[in-house]
Design brief:
The chain has nine helices and no strands. The chain is mostly helical. It has two domains: about 55 residues, Arc Repressor Mutant, subunit A (Orthogonal Bundle); about 130 residues. It is globular, with a radius of gyration of 19 Å.
């Protein structure tokens, strides 16, 4: 018989995963994505390699798990806020990015690896696709709108984090919605 893995609701599992994610973030900030290994993550988190591999296949899977947690938190925050409408995730993600400014700048800066940028892009594309699923008809045009809106969000977020004069998250969110409103209006199916 195989060994049964502890459930993800187990406090020890949660503590271990949190320590590994915190170590990952610290290493991205210190060294950049490409310059550290799984062993470095384990050393920083004070977790054995076998424990790491019980939870994750590699450091990319650890990264994806963090993005999935962020996605779940954004959806829960949106549900609790009662802010309906497409692209409602944007305010929470912008606020999170501004709170974690140093990390997000590292994710998109020269220390970042393409893997990190691609995974963040996948997160945003997924959020946009989910939000626009009920608004736009399926098809190639819809895929183009999703790519456009997600790309615009990522670029605007990056701009807001890199700008010398600080722009409040709520202003960035309002600007995003103002800028994409014509695109969404043009892309909606006509009756």
């Amino acid at each position: 018989m195989g060994t049964k893995l502890p459930s993800t609701s187990d406090r020890r599992v949660q503590r271990t995963r949190r320590a590994l994610r915190e170590a990952l973030v610290a290493l991205i900030l210190d060294r950049g994505w490409e310059a550290f290994s799984v062993q470095d993550v384990c050393d920083r988190a004070d977790v054995g390699r076998s424990t790491f591999y019980t939870h994750f296949a590699d450091k990319e899977e650890l990264l994806v798990g963090g993005f999935e947690d962020l996605r779940s938190a954004l959806r829960a925050q949106l549900a609790a806020s009662g802010r309906p409408g497409p692209l409602g995730f944007s305010r929470g993600l912008i606020e999170h990015a501004h709170e974690q400014r140093r990390l997000f700048l590292a994710l998109f800066g020269k220390k970042s690896g393409l893997v990190v940028q691609r995974r963040f892009r996948d997160l945003v594309f997924g959020l946009v696709r989910e939000d626009l699923a009920g608004v736009l008809a399926a098809g190639r045009r819809t895929d183009a709108v999703i790519a456009f809106v997600a790309g615009a969000f990522i670029e605007l977020l990056t701009w807001s984090l890199e700008a010398r004069s600080a722009t409040a998250p709520e202003e960035v969110d309002a600007l995003f919605h103002d800028l994409v409103a014509p695109v969404l209006g043009a892309a909606r199916p006509r009756a």
